[in-house]
Amino acid sequence: MSTNSLPLTRHSISAARTTLHPPHIHLTPVLTSTTLSALASSPRGSGTAGERPAQPTLRLWFKCENLQRGGSFKIRGAVYALGRLLEGEGREGREGIEGIEGAEEERIDGWVREKGVVTHSSGNHAQALALAARDQNLTAHIIMPSIATPQKIAAAKAYGARVYLSGSTYPEREALTRQVISATGARLISSCDHPDIILGQGTMGLEMQEQVSALMSSLNPYGCESGGNDPGKGGLDGIITPCGGGGMLSGVALSAEGTEVRVFGAEPSFQGADDGKRGFYAGERIEQVETMTVAEGLRVPVGWWPWGVIHGRGLVSGMYSVGEEEILAATRLVWERMKLVVEPSACVGLAVVLFDDEFRALVEREAGEDGWDLGIVLSGGNVGGEAVAQMLSDESARL
């Protein structure tokens, strides 16, 4: 498949970053938490194969994309991909050309301004594309499942999008998207399955690595503990991100290519939502997922383009999954200890760090006494007050 996007490399992410500036994109902070780092460094769980519970040494660095414009990291990919289309340099990805004769050859900048753009999303990419389109005075057609969070639907409408409600499953969303494309001629900007989306999301990984290095070299909140016994290390050992369609995970993996930073993916396990993990270890992408996990932003299968980075190029070191109660417990901890508004999808990485025996054993084994400085992406904060109250009242969400 041909595309005029830049190649999927760390250098291309650096190039993409030069095009993303305020007011379209915020530089989100990296925060630390000695409380959550201490919890992550305490023995918990039953261990594996009858062994003692792992007790890794972890210093956690949180990239707060919940404070990003539009409430999530998704604005990065939406702004960059839309900008490429309007320059006439981008092209649709695998989904975008399906069923549209001659789409690859046609220059599309004028077409996009006339017909607008379209996507399907459970909420965060919907808001991001609606916001990016509004910035460019374009029409955004957004397909959202009828069970999406009411606040996310309302936000997309408030940003000026034309919202169409579909059935709850991924195939139903895709089917309605094709109908809207046929009726309007709008151009698809996938939530994850396009090189430009991946490159845009990857800018967050570069930022995080640079921010942590700067913090370590100045007023390091973890003091001399960061970097262990290697005074020249001065950076992250690893980054863990949530994984739904895989755009962020693959972008962050590319941002760490050629460095010593290892990248991991985190998914819910409920009702087979861990398609990325299962496919990763089976060596074959799983193309359909039907789940009602509380991590609603992760109810989609890993896309074709992200899969090529995650598995095909081996840039992700491992995939892990956690249950619903663990995700809610991690979410509650961020709310109560860090005073941050985050959605459950954003906290799947932290849940893995706190509760997954295999991941914790890996860190203990490979990091030793020095421990790891681990980046955790808090990917979004689009959650309503009623949902927060309900989850806070759930006793099963306590650590």
Automatic annotation (TrEMBL):
Q: Which cofactor does it need?
A: Mn(2+); pyridoxal 5'-phosphate; Mg(2+); Ca(2+)
Manganese keyword on record: no
Give a GO biological-process term.
amino acid metabolic process
- Which keywords does UniProt give here? Lyase, Magnesium, Pyridoxal phosphate
Molecular function terms, GO-annotated: ATP binding; D-serine ammonia-lyase activity; L-serine ammonia-lyase activity; magnesium ion binding; pyridoxal phosphate binding; serine racemase activity; threonine racemase activity
Q: Residues in domain Tryptophan synthase beta chain-like PALP?
A: 57-354
InterPro entries in alphabetical order: Ser/Thr_deHydtase_PyrdxlP-BS, TrpB-like_PALP, TrpB-like_PALP_sf
The family assignment reads: Belongs to the serine/threonine dehydratase family.
Query: What's the protein called, per UniProt?
Result: Tryptophan synthase beta chain-like PALP domain-containing protein
Phylogenetic placement of the source organism: Eukaryota, Fungi, Dikarya, Ascomycota, Pezizomycotina
